[in-house]
Amino acid sequence: MASFNIFKKKKEPKKKAVAVKSEIKEAKAAPTKEVATQKKAGIIYGVVKVPHISEKSTNLGKINQYTFKVFPGVNKQQTKKAIEKIYGVKVLSVNMITISPKKRRLGGVMGLKSGYRKAIVKIQEGQTIEIM
Which tens digit of pLDDT belongs to each residue from 74-90? Predict the structure, then answer.
């Protein structure tokens, strides 16, 4: 029976447990940059997917319009707030476009190329968004 004692967990001294509790209290008291970023990201989560980069969207960048892929079901107001929070620019207008799924064929199998929704965002003159 004495051989089973090696599998039992050893108890830690109480002094170390008190030290760990004080470290946890200090960590909670001082907010880090990660916590601030998470709060900021929580507002815009589920709105903007990625910037949409194509030849046409690159040309639109010259006239202060940028294109983003967004989640379906997102409206113009949510997109405007999200872009302003992420990039720190003043958004003047938002145009939403829904691209429908397209049929694609691979051999004898028919399939669909997934559709998506994109937003064309016009920002205030003199401001830019660094996408690349």
Answer: 999 999 999 999 999 99
